[in-house]
Amino acid sequence: MSSSSELVQSIHNMRRVYFDNNATTPVLPGVLEAMQPYFGEHYGNASSIHHHGQETRAAVERARESVAALLGCLPSEIVFTSGGTEADNLAIFGTVQRAVARALPVARSNDHVITSTIEHHAVLNACRHLEQEGWEVTYLPVDCRGVIDPNEVKRALKPNTKLISIMLANNETGVLQPVTEIGKIAAEADVCFHTDAVQAVGKVPVRVDELGCDLLTISAHKLHGPQGIGALYVRKGTQLEAQMHGGRHERSRRAGTENVPGIVGLGKAAEIAREALERGDYDLTELRERLERELLKMEAVTVNAGGSGRVPNTTSLCFNGIDGEALVIALDLKGLAVSTGAACSSGAIEPSHVLLAMGLTPERARASIRFSLGKQNTSEDVEFAIRLVRETVGRLRELSPVWDNAPGSLESHAATKLVARS
Ligand code: PLP
Hints:
Blueprint: H1 3-13, E1 17-18, H2 29-35, H3 51-71, E2 78-81, H4 84-103, E3 112-116, H5 121-132, E4 136-140, H6 150-156, E5 161-165, H7 179-189, E6 192-196, H8 208-211, E7 215-219, E8 230-234, H9 249-252, H10 260-279, H11 285-296, E9 301-303, E10 314-319, H12 324-334, E11 336-337, E12 343-345, E13 348-350, H13 353-357, H14 362-366, E14 368-372, H15 379-399, H16 401-404, H17 410-420
Parallel strand pairs: 1-11, 3-4, 3-5, 5-6, 6-7
Antiparallel strand pairs: 2-8, 7-8, 9-10, 10-14, 12-13
Helix pairs in contact: 2-10, 3-10, 4-5, 11-15, 12-15
Bound molecules: pyridoxal-5'-phosphate (PLP).
């Protein structure tokens, strides 16, 4: 064998550990099995009245019941979408456009929306678009633990506030937001309340009545279901303007032939997640804590989180003196998949908006890595990651002129460690 084919062979044989489950999760075998017949023998359009259509309609409605059971709502309150991004957009534009439509003939597009600086871009960019249309948007700050203060929501309310959109769990840090308290504030003020729960559903119990939300977003591929399918919970009575115009699918709230295999996959993933949460056997806290504890023993490593809690699978760690992109690439070459929260905009790597909002300097934000675990991960995976990260960070720091010149703030790192642990 030539040396290049040996190299290719060794890459194929390499042990690979996937710790990027907040980006997407592998589809569970049970989910795949449930979906398979809907790519083949059960191919009817769920809107058709004949046998084939009835068969797929029944599957869609069973999936709706399963999603509703996971969220503690009525099946009729679930609207299937193409994923979390579409559900967020439907929630935001659907609510504000409805508000404008109801204000006719004096349509006002200069009303007010409250969101936060740490939302996913599906919410942030939808809000930026609203601003271009003349809406006023308040982006609430977070503290250094990554938590929004509910009092800030109260203070931001205006007589013309039409929507509050605050996420349940942050995708980069895993930090849970005080959504129940925000839900109460929204209800008192009679303002529609949306929460993006994409990173929380399936990881912690999520019940819409406990949260007090009117709208809630989920996405199948974050809970071991397929990509390209999600749902919006719409509380009965909530006024929502459809964003897709076409047939009367999803009770005229989202036009378009249903993605039956995807919906079936989401329904099965929701069923598996609900059963696991009820049994209490989907708790990755122990694995996450071990990983975090061991990596925090390294010099100048801190956790980017704090507050009342996090989803059990996520930790965002800052490796001072390291370039996060370089670390992600070096780890990937050795078989560990993790991510930075960085986004590539106009060819430049921008540090994570979430970490900057928490008050990290751009250097520290760029030195941060997100580890997100999934159902498939084992304690062997964690040991593998600990060893690899220690080795790789050590090597990168040896090579790094920045590390040599790193501000001598090891005491302050130690202090941050204490403060930032959640
Ligand atoms: N909201 C959050 C918090 C997310 O993490 C994501 C995806 O990463 C989305 C929304 C978008 O979901 P989707 O990928 O299904 O469009």
